[in-house]
Amino acid sequence: MTKDFNLPPLARLAHAGHARRCLSGLPDSQIELDSGRMAVAFYCLGALDLLKMLQDKVSMTDRESWQEWIWEQHTRGKYGSGFRPSPFMTVSSEVERTTSYTDYDTPHIIMTYTALLTLAILRDDFSQLDKQGILLLLKACQREDGSFSTIPGGGETDLRTLYCAFVIAHLLDDWSTINLQNAFSFIASCRSYEGGYGQSAHCEANGGTTYIAMAAMELAPVSTTPLTALEKRKTIEWALHNQLESGGFCGRTNKLADACYCFWIGGSLKILGAGDLVDSRSLASFLASCQFRFGGIAKAPGEHPDPYHTYLSLATLSMFPPPVYENDASGSSWIFDPLDPLINARQETADWARKYIAIKH
Amino acid sequence: MSVSVPEPLRYADRPEWNDVAPVEQYENVNPLAPIFYTNEYKDATDYFRGIIKTGEKSQRVLQLTEHIIRLNPAHYTAWQYRYETLLAIEANLEDELRLMDELAITYLKTYQVWHHRRLLMLQIRKPAPELVFIARTFQVDPKNYHTWSYRQWLLAYFNDANLWIGELDFVEELLNDDIRNNSAWHHRFFTVWQSGVREGEEDRERVLRRELIYVKQSISLAPNNASAWNYLRGILDHNSIPYQKMITFVQPYTLLLDEQVADLVDLENPPPSKSAHLPCASAIEFLADIYEAEGGNSMLKATELWKSLGNEHDISRKKYWEYRIREGLRAIQT
Ligand SMILES: [Zn+2]
Question: A single Pfam family, by name (chain A) (predicted)?
Answer without folding.
Answer: Prenyltrans
